[in-house]
Design goal:
There is one protein chain. By secondary structure, the protein is of the alpha/beta class. It has a single domain, classed as Leucine-rich repeat, LRR (right-handed beta-alpha superhelix) (Alpha-Beta Horseshoe), CATH 3.80.10.10. 20% of the residues lie in helices and 17% in strands. This is STM4015 family protein.
Length: 332
Amino acid sequence: MAINHNQTWNLQERLQKYPGYRAEHTTLFANRQVIDYNLETGISNPVGTAYALRCDYDEDEKATDKLMQLQQDPQVDKLEALVIGTWEGEMAGGSSSFLIEALVGAKDWFPSLKALFIGDIHYSECEISWIVQSDISPILEAYPNLEILQIRGGDGLAFTPFVGHKNLKALIVETGGLSSATIAQICALDLPTLQHLELWLGSDNYGGNSSIADLNPILVERKFPNLIYLGLRNSEYSDDIAEAVVRSPLLNTIRILDLSMGTLSDAGAELLLKNPVVQQLDTFNIAENYLSDEILAFVEEQQANFPVQIIIDGQKKDEYEDEEYRYCSVAE
């Protein structure tokens, strides 16, 4: 099967550098500018703007209180994109379960919601590995028109019971450690229209205990056959992923392959760069890995000869105190 260039994918924002490095919130979500919801000004652009609910440190109000205020806005039924940041003034150990319950309970107020981001939280508010998530499946069941779901934080993250969703096009899971159990739950979801799957696999030190075998439903069984973008990012086993990707039938149909923020070496990169199918992709993102100056020079020299756009910025050094050491970009 040839690469389908007629399918649309418009989440270029996902190729930008992670704003959490700079202790910043996202400024762009679902191709919409993100602004904090203000009770006084209300919703002025329910379609073209993503509104964010956040709690300041030590604030008494919770995100659920702010959600109730948002529900009273006269344009809430037209709102298409919602971002949830810190859901409590003190995040330590506080799970998102009460927030999920409130969002499910508020579903009738948000009939137009297409994009939801739960966990726009940077490290100065709460380290990514300290964000305690919960079962997200009730969100998929409550919001049948949802097209983009983004979650940050892997601790406690679950997708049970296994549900189907006919309209979800993008599932983005950002973690410092994604468990093999959660990956299995994601792969058990019935998402027939999914075009964008992005998993930050993370570090074994923070719950990222997966291996290449856990990705077989995606790479070998083609559980999500309509993918345009595949992101297996922030991984400690990027070379294993590279070996599996070049053998995967999925490579013949996706247009964007994103292995950034990981531990990809020259060996893994060469395997991919010399593959003629990879060369025909639209975009190949291998930024923030462990590529040598020789590989980077080769890419720069050959870029004009490759149809694919190759992103290679921000390479890391693999030596720490004279010892070889490779790490994924986002862990704790």
